[in-house]
Amino acid sequence: LAFGCPGVLAVLEMEAAAPGECELTRLLQDKLQYEMRLQYMKHNFPIDYTVQVQYEEVLRPSNVTRLRNGTVSEVALRYLWFHLSSQAVLRIREVLPEKHPSWKYTQELGHLFDALGKEYSKYRQTDVEAVVADLVKLVHSAGTENRRKAVRPKALLDNCLKVMRMLYGAPCELGTD
C-alpha cells in the first residue's frame, strides 16, 4: 500500500478499526516487512542507537516457547504479545521528534495496535493465566524503571514480527516472506 497518499491512511484506519485479529495481523505483517524495518528502525537512527525498555518488554520466540511448554494458552500468549509489542512501539515513539523520518511509520504501527487493542478489550486480566497477567501488570506498573536494558529499535520490531508469526501464522494463514 502507498501510505504516502493522504486518503490511503484514512481508509486503512477505517478498515483497521473493524476487522478481527487476523486482518489486523496481516496489516501489521505488511507494515513490518524487512525493508521497512530496516529503513525506519535502523537507517533512520544513528549507528548502534538503542531504546531503554524494561527487561520484561522484550518478548522473543524463545520466551513464547518456554511459556507454551508451561501450558500457557495461545489466547493468553496473544494477549501478552499485543501488550508487549504495543509497548515497544510506544517506547520507540517516545524518543522520536515529530519531524523524524520514522515518526509517521511508528504512528501507523500505533494505529494498528490501537485497533487490535479494541479486539482485545473484551479480555480481562483475570481471563488469562496468572503468569501472563503478572507480566502485563509488571510492564504497566510504576517502579520498574531500574529493570531496564538497551535494545535497538529494529530488534524490538524484529521480535514483534517473529512472535506474531509464531502465534498467528497458522490460524491466520500469515505468509513468511
TrEMBL record:
<dbReference type="InterPro" id="IPR020415">
    <property type="entry name" value="IL-34"/>
</dbReference>
<dbReference type="GO" id="GO:0045657">
    <property type="term" value="P:positive regulation of monocyte differentiation"/>
</dbReference>
<dbReference type="GO" id="GO:0045651">
    <property type="term" value="P:positive regulation of macrophage differentiation"/>
</dbReference>
<protein>
    <submittedName>
        <fullName>IL34 protein</fullName>
    </submittedName>
</protein>
<dbReference type="GO" id="GO:0005615">
    <property type="term" value="C:extracellular space"/>
</dbReference>
<dbReference type="Pfam" id="PF15036">
    <property type="entry name" value="IL34"/>
</dbReference>
<dbReference type="GO" id="GO:0008284">
    <property type="term" value="P:positive regulation of cell population proliferation"/>
</dbReference>
<dbReference type="GO" id="GO:0005157">
    <property type="term" value="F:macrophage colony-stimulating factor receptor binding"/>
</dbReference>
<dbReference type="InterPro" id="IPR038328">
    <property type="entry name" value="IL-34_sf"/>
</dbReference>
